[in-house]
Amino acid sequence: MDRVCRWGILGTAGIARKNWKAIKLSGNSRVAAVASRRAGAAEQFIDECSSQVPVTDRPAAVSSYEALLGRDDIDAVYIPLPTALRHEWVIRAAEAGKHVIGEKPAALNASQVREMLQACQEHQVQYMDGVMFMHSGRMPIVRQLLDDGDSLGQLRRLYGQFSFAGDEEFGRANIRTDSRLEPHGCLGDLGWYLIRYFLWVMNGQLPTHVQGRSLSQLQGNESPHPVPGEFAADLYFDNGVSAGFYCSFRTENQQWIHASGSRGNLRIHDFVLPYHGSSIEAFVTQDAFVIDNCEFHMEHHETRHAIRERDAGAASAQEVCMIRNFANQVLSNHIDRTWPDWTLKTQVVLDACFQSAADDGAAVTVQL
Questions:
Q1: What tens digit of pLDDT does each residue of 11-28 get?
Q2: 199-219 pLDDT, tens per residue?
């Protein structure tokens, strides 16, 4: 039997259930252990996940994160713990020789991220954040459209929105409204994806400066301070491209990216969580304003570019590709430094947006 990457899961957050299935479907991985600090939580998690996605070998239920990291049957760990805890546990995982996928935002600030990445480098383990769309087959198609010189022409403006409307219970009790655990609020939970997509479109180029504003705030019952409930920001690049985004816990489901150029525009309606189905797509529009004497018409010219890829829970889905790609690196003993670089750049921009909002929307210079 070919060797597989043996995973440990630190914590039982909801998103870990999606990656339980992704690990099963990857073809080169299995869950070896799940840890929780709450008595019985790991057993319950394993039971519930196994009832829908059965596994051949039942993972061990471990009563502490430390114990999981001390196991010799773990190659890599997935860390979906709250943002305030990630710094400590990524470093401890690296020190234990475990490769790491960590949820986002990566940490409370870029200083913490640098310490995490330094620990991973020193102990020769791979770090990657859990931005699943980076592993989608749609990304090469979008890159080709951005770079072909014809579909969009010269890129000028990027804009995007990622939002969902949390209910009253969400506002009162969800950890994303607790400043002790998730101080960035919607900026960290949702804005991270928008910032990452912009940076990817710009081939990793950082903006020179940003301006951000917290448009409204939420404060959970146990939270000592409010966190952003709605956030808007603008990013400015030194080649004349600008980008703007809006993210929110108070606005209906939306997750779109729009890129405007001198010849056309590109729109993706579902850039984070692909719509349910067997294909995913991007649209290029090159509308024409036609005048013939007294006749005035705006003509709509749109081309659909699609790829066969399931939205979730299938071998071709982006979260499965993420696990498979990561495991391949672990199994080949290959460390890819581009993944930590993406994380640090995203955190640096997020920090600048957060600081700008604290400074009443003042421009903040972005420095790596």
A1: 999 999 999 999 999 999
A2: 999 999 999 999 999 999 999
**Contact of 173 with 167, CB cutoff 8 Å:** no
Domains of the chain in sequence order: 5-133+318-335 (3.40.50.720), 137-311+346-365 (3.30.360.10)
Residue 231 CB contacts under 8 Å (≥ 6 apart), including other chains: 185, 186, 187, 191, 212, 213, 214, 215, 246, 247, 248, 353, 357
- CA 49 centroid distance within chain: 23
Q: How far is CA 29 from CA 35, 222, 241, in A?
A: 18, 38, 41
Residue 218 CB-half CA count within 13 A: 28
Quote the CA–CA distance of 105 and 249 in Å, as a whole number: 16
Q: How far is CA 79 from CA 90, 247, 264, in A?
A: 8, 24, 40
Residue type, 364: V
Long-range contacts of 289-295 (CB under 8 A, 24+ apart): none
Which residues are within 8 A (CB) of 194 and not within 5 positions of it... i.e. 6 or more apart? 160, 161, 162, 245, 247, 257
Q: What is the pLDDT of residue 1?
A: 45
β-bridge partners, 61: 34
Taken in order 152, 156, 161, 162, the sign of the CA dihedral is positive
Alpha-carbon distance of 165 to 229, in angstroms, equals 10
Q: Which position has the token pair 């840890």? A: 35
In the three-class reduction of DSSP (H, G, I as helix; E, B as strand; rest coil), residue 174 is classed as coil
Q: Which of 117, 126, 138 is nearest to 197 (CA)?
A: 138
Cis omega (within 30 of 0) on the bond before 340? no
